[in-house]
Amino acid sequence: MKLCLSCEATFSGVSWVCPECSWSPAQNGVSRFAPELADSSEYFPRDAIARQSALEEAYFWFRARNELVVWAVSQHFPHAETLLEIGCGTGVVLSWIREALPHLELTGADLLPDALAVARTRVPDGTFAQIDIRRIPYVEEFDVVCALDVLEHVEEDASAVEQIARALRPGGGVVISVPQHAWLWSAQDEFGRHRRRYSRRALLGLLDAAGFDAVRATSTVSLLLPVVAISRLRNRHLTDDYDPFRELTLPPIVNGALGAVMRVERALIKRGVSFPVGSSLVVVGRKR
Predict the structure, then answer these.
(1) With CB atoms counted within 10 Å of each terminal CB, which end of the chain scores lower, N or C?
(2) What is the pLDDT of residues 225-248, one digit of tens each?
C-alpha cells in the first residue's frame, strides 16, 4: 500500500495522487518524497558520488558485501517477490540482485537524486524514488527491505528501523549492514557523515524494539580485521589532506588477494559460522 505523507491515508494503484487530500510527490526524473533534502550533503558528500560509483564495481569490499547480500536474500527469503533497497546509492547492490534473482520486482530509494540517476542506468527495469528513510511512503508493501550501510548516517536510527518494519508485509524480511565497533572510528567515518558505529547488542536491540526477530547475525571483514584496524587507526580524524578514495584504488593484485580472503570468509558464513568481531555487521531479521 502507498502512504500519503501529507494526510497519512493509505491507498493502492499506479498513481501517487492521494485520493483523500490530492497530495502527490514532486516530480523531477523520479518521484521526490523529500525534495527539501535532495541537494543536501548532510548525510553523504554529494561530490563523492561519481567517483565512488566508478570504483565500487571492482573494489573487493563492495563485491564481498554484494555477494553476501544476494546470498542472504536467496537463502532466507526464497519466496520473496518484491524487494526495496532503502539508501540504494548508485544501485550497485540492486544490479547484483537483478542478475542473481531476476524474478524479483526491485525498488530503489535514496535521498540523493544524483545517486539515483546512476542507479537507474544500472537497473533499467527497477522502480526508483527519492525517499527519506525516516518517512518511507509505504505500508506492508514489500517482502524484503535492504538497508545496507545506511543507518549509521541517520540520527534517528530507531525511527528508521520502525519505518522499515511498517513498509514490510507480515512475515517479511530485512537485511541490514552497518559499520561495527566504536573503537574503529576514523576519518573514513567522518568523511562519510556517519553518526556512529554499532555494537551487535545495539543493532539487535533496535530490531527487536521495531518488531523483528533476528534470524542471522554475523560480523564480516573479520579475517581482515587487523588490516582494517591498522588503516583506520592511522587516520583517526579527518584532515585537509585526507584522501577517502586512497584505499578504493588498490593495486589489482592486492585487491584480488583481499577478495580471495573475503571469499573464504563468505564460505564459512554460508556454512553457519557467525564471526564475533569484524569491521562490519550484517543482520537478517523477520518481521513478527
Answers:
(1) C
(2) 999 999 888 888 888 788 877 878
Closest of 132, 119, 147, 180 to residue 3, by C-alpha: 132
Closest Cα partner for 226 from 234, 216, 215? 234
CA dihedral sign, ordered 180, 64, 159, 41: positive
**Helix, strand, coil tally for the chain in percent (to 5):** 40, 25, 40
pTM: 0.95
Fold of 31-287: Rossmann fold (3.40.50)
CB 283 within 8 A of CB 214: yes
Strands 142-148 and 105-110: unpaired
Rounded to the nearest angstrom, the gap between the alpha carbon of residue 181 and the centroid of all alpha carbons in its chain is: 18
DSSP state of 8: -
Using alpha carbons, select from 165, 134, 138 the residue that is nearest to residue 151.
Answer: 134
100-116 confidence digits (pLDDT tens): 999 999 999 999 999 99
The cell for 259 is: 577478495
Hey, what's the cell of 195?
Answer: 553518526
